[in-house]
Write a structure and sequence with these properties.
heterodimer; A: about 60 residues; alpha+beta; two-stranded antiparallel ribbon; 2 helices; 4 strands; about 20% strand; globular; B: three-stranded antiparallel β-sheet; 14 strands
Chain lengths: ~60, ~400
């Protein structure tokens, strides 16, 4: 599974960073960035889906 | 019932006590309603419409964000309320907001958490020997007031005057426009003096940060500077105070959920607290914004004309059953929770990370030391209406030993 944050949509709600800091980090302005180039380890897949389901801007795109 | 007959009144105390059935009926029967009060305004109540409006700042401008729009003025017409970025549109908004964002990022806000714990614990210390407190006045309101006073660099010696004064301003509020305007004038004078002091003698705080801010090659005008200081003060206070208060109200009346949260306090693996905080934010979202219609448009088949005003009740969106299962229930372990408590789109609450931290610390500190409490007198619970809804009086019975030990 891979994940990207659509930076045009992200408004820095930081919900993903709270749900799964192993995968999502925030930059100096508070916008979300994905760690490790967006590769998702198997144990983080459920958490990534949960982050996507909670993103108020629908900015998290999950592939695979 | 008047709410459905063209007289929707968000300032009405009875409505404020329980707006949810009204919103449910409006969503069902008239999802883009109109009110003839306060010079007239529209009220969408569906999640989908509120979401779309918030994402269309070209059509729905933030040049006015309050209904009625003359609440925040000095009454003499000398100060036009302008508090960017909240009252501005792109492109100015984009640049201005960018300047402020770093001060409110998750990492910066984490630095304020230990201070917030200390503030909360000191408030609980003061419960010692009392078996009745007011959850709003003695606790919830003091957390954001004290935190923001420190962020703005208000001197220790002035803090009591400052907080007492702010309490007056926010409490008097929309129910007494003249009183609010008088208080507002005092606040302007106080902040103007503060700004002048900071110009003469820069300090390491937000006021100096704002004075030094350059947008588009220009420093902020005096009105913008004043407005933004006010925004930081006002936007951060009764909002968070309302969220903490509403959550305490819920916890006082739902002992099972309270016990689950008390049990989870010492369990580092539990995700219950983070889920519960988002659920409290969803269910008791305090903030309704407003927009000025900059271009005529159609929402859900209803024609809206340029120059109209419109309320954006995020709390109503958060109870829309087409988006949330059991929308009117508080489900503290709700997993899918795309709530709009902090708004959505380019005006997402700048202070959301701060507010969320204050809400969590405020509730955790309280439950740690006061695990058992109930409403002392339901008849005395009072909610303020308007665009920031939450309890202003919340009498609670607590064990008298609560304040004694940490």
């Amino acid at each position: 599974m891979r994940v990207v944050v659509d930076s045009d949509r992200c408004q820095g709600h930081a919900r993903c960073v709270l749900i799964l800091p192993e995968v999502f980090d925030s930059d100096d302005l508070g916008y979300a960035v994905v760690r490790d180039g967006g590769r998702v380890r198997a144990e983080d897949e459920a958490g990534v889906k949960r982050a996507a389901a909670n993103c108020p801007e629908r900015a998290i795109v999950v592939d695979g | 019932m008047d709410n459905l007959l063209g007289h929707y009144d968000h300032l009405d105390g009875e409505f404020a006590a329980d707006p949810y059935p009204v919103w449910a009926e409006m969503r069902e029967r008239c999802p883009v309603a109109h009110s003839d009060l306060y010079k007239g305004f529209w009220v969408p109540t569906r999640h989908e419409d509120i979401y779309a409006i918030a994402h269309d700042p070209d059509t729905f401008s933030s040049r006015k964000v309050a209904i009625p729009d003359d609440l925040l003025s000095d009454g003499a017409g000398e100060f036009e309320f302008s508090a960017p970025p909240i009252t501005s549109d792109p492109p100015f908004h984009t640049q201005f907001r960018r300047m402020l964002l770093p001060a409110f990022s998750p990492k910066q806000i984490a630095g304020w958490e230990p201070v917030t714990w200390r503030i909360a614990d000191e408030l609980i210390d003061a419960f010692e020997g009392r078996d009745r407190i007011d959850g709003a006045r003695d606790y919830a309101q003091n957390i954001p007031i004290t935190v923001i006073a420190r962020m703005l660099g208000v001197d220790e010696s002035e803090r009591d005057t400052f907080t007492g004064w702010l309490r007056g301003l926010v409490e008097v509020g929309p129910s007494n426009p003249e009183g609010a305007r008088a208080a507002f004038g005092e606040m302007l004078a106080y902040l103007s003096a503060k700004i002048a002091e900071h110009r003469a003698l820069p300090a390491e705080d937000i006021i100096t940060f704002l004075i030094d801010t350059v947008v588009d090659g220009e420093s902020l005008s005096d009105d913008d500077l004043l407005g933004t200081c006010l925004l930081l003060l006002l936007a951060g206070i009764d909002t968070t105070w309302s969220s903490i208060g509403s959550s305490l109200h819920y916890l006082a009346t739902h002992p099972e959920d309270r016990r689950r949260l008390v049990d989870a306090l010492d369990d580092p693996d539990s995700t219950l607290w983070s889920l519960a905080i988002e659920e409290f934010l969803r269910a008791f979202a305090p903030v309704t914004m407003a927009r000025y219609v900059a271009k005529s448009t159609v929402i859900d088949g209803v024609s809206i004309r340029e120059g109209d005003m419109l309320l954006l009740p995020f709390p109503a969106a958060n109870r829309d059953p087409s988006v949330f299962d059991r929308a009117d229930e508080v489900v503290i372990d709700r997993e899918a929770n795309r709530h709009l408590a902090f708004g959505v789109g380019i005006h997402r609450c700048l202070g959301s990370n701060l507010a969320r931290m204050e809400l969590r610390v405020g509730l955790q500190a309280f439950l740690r030391r006061v695990p058992d409490f109930e409403i002392a007198d339901a008849a005395q619970v009072r909610y303020a209406g308007g665009q920031i809804r939450g309890p202003r009086e919340l009498p609670l019975s607590i064990p008298a030993k609560s304040g004694a030990s940490r």
